[in-house]
Amino acid sequence: MSAFKSLPAAPIATKKPVQDTRHGITRTDDYAWFRADNWQAMFKDTSILDPEIRAHLEAENAYMEAAMEDTKGLQKMLFSEMRGRIKEDDSSVPVKDGPFAYGTSYVTGGEQPRYFRTPRDGGEQTLLLDGDKEAEGKGYFRLSGIDHSTDHTLGIWGYDDKGSEYFTLRVRDLATFQDRDDLVENTGGGGVWAPDGKSFFYTLQDENHRPSKIFHHILGEQQSQDRLVYEEKDPGFFLSVGGSLLDDVIYIDIHDHETSEYRLLSTKDLFAEPAIVAPRQTGLEYSMTEGGDVFYILTNADGAKDFKIMEAPVNAPGRENWKEVVPHRPGTLILNHLAFARHLVWLERHEGLPRIIVRDRKSGEQHEIAFAEEAYSLGLSGAAEYDTDVIRFTYSSMTTPSQLFDYDMATRKRTLLKTQEVPSGHVIDDYVTRRVFAPAWDGERVPVTLLYRKDTPLDGTAPCLLYGYGAYGISIPAGFNTNCLSLADRGFVYAIAHIRGGKEKGYAWYEDGKMEKKTNTFKDFIAAADFLNQERFTSYAKIVAEGGSAGGMLMGAIANMAPEKFGGIIAAVPFVDVLNTMLDDTLPLTPPEWAEWGNPIESADFYRLMASYSPYDNVEAKAYPPILALSGLTDPRVTYWEPTKWVAKLREKATGNQPILLRTNTGAGHGGASGRFQRLEEIAFEYAFAIKVAGKM
What is the pTM (predicted TM-score) of this model? Predict the structure, then answer.
């Protein structure tokens, strides 16, 4: 029985068949026309969108509004609850760097962060950048932060005011708080200062939204005069640029999803040719951090699937000079590493739980920072200075609010700096966090993190929101999330399925959920639903599945594979037109993604594999549960036409009376709304859908 009553007629998309033949196989796409010919220009000026496409998106939004009309009061209530858990005038604990300490804050009612600094050991705050002021009059506005120069006199700050992730950089005088004339457009969002503060380096996004070039900008000059430092011509690779704590080197990081290459530029000669460290070799990954006279290199070289740490002389960092410091230990994945004057630090994950390891660089003695909860999240933020014994880390769990610690690596003393405040109140003992394991089809055990109220009946009657992602090796942390408390307080079990495609159980967990093994991701998620149903945490009819981006692909796949096992599905900016997108090498998402999904242009095997699971290509005449798809018009990662086409085909094919809804944000991109409260409104909308289809209104 549907929770949606008396709906108006749903929009029916016009069919304009387009045929495509690859590897001797011909496919017909009735809705290819939703991709506007001028999509690249439209990302920067949405007013030029084809009127027929715009009219359809507006009709979809109107239908969605009608379907969700009776939840508006609930949405307001959810928003109020979630906002009430946020300390509106919150402020970070400033990070010490030279004569100052830098932090961020919000004001009551403010949507955007404010960046400030104080004297190093405390004192009056000086406001450097007011995000709310800069956002005035803009429907969308997102700051990329502010990076101060070595002498603390200037700051580079960036903003995106369309949601298309093309950032404009400005340079601010930190004494007068006035911006200089320098204007650098179409960047990746940040800049790296040269030590003398007279120039900086940045990445330029090309027309396909790929950071493909690194430029050197000298203050006072026009962007057109900037010097090209490096251009990556392989369309499958991205660039990023970074600096070192010692200001001795500029890092140029070139990478795709399985291969990396570093080039180094000494700050002693900013106009030199960047020197390559280890030439790219398919499957070889490495990252670098400075350690004074050595570099520390995190790598999977020589079969170190879960990574090891090497060192090399700073003046000869080539692979032939790499020496092992921290050996590879199968099943213990090293996630990242930092180096300071006297210590080497890294974050690793063992048996699905994170821990921080601190090693004395002189003695080799090491110890760990870990916690006793069944499931938790750790974040290693390190320090802004090289010559220090004090680093910072964060800790939280699904029930424990985030805590920020300073940690003295020499004395091993933890100092609690801040505990996340929940103004409306939070009683930890009212909630339960558990880590359970769902048996997969092939005998693997899929970790599932659960949060629910202690008084929630576990007899199959509780509704459940089951979240999943499962791609790019991204692990979903079991951290504190005040928003999902609104579901738990309504009797929901909130569950995170740590499925293959992430790295929760090591690098092999990632490998078993990509390329030719991609379908393991979908099967694992269904296995999690099966387990939760079997163990009476919930029941199939009360499970609302949720995922976004690559997790949206997951939602589309499980909708086709096992629609009867889900009471509803929320797919945010869903990557659902997989085969068409991977066949189009002009799209932003495509060439860099072949290392994750395979290349169906060159390989008939990958073509057939993608055709077998691509959500859009596998929509059939069957009873789908209620589906909510969320899209962003200026999204460069998952272009708006993917969910639009998917919804059109679902509505054409689906049997039964369950609605298929599409909500397109015409003023935002992949990340949705930019303001902190605007984002809460979106979450409240999604949760209202989940509550409605679960019958808990």
Answer: 0.90
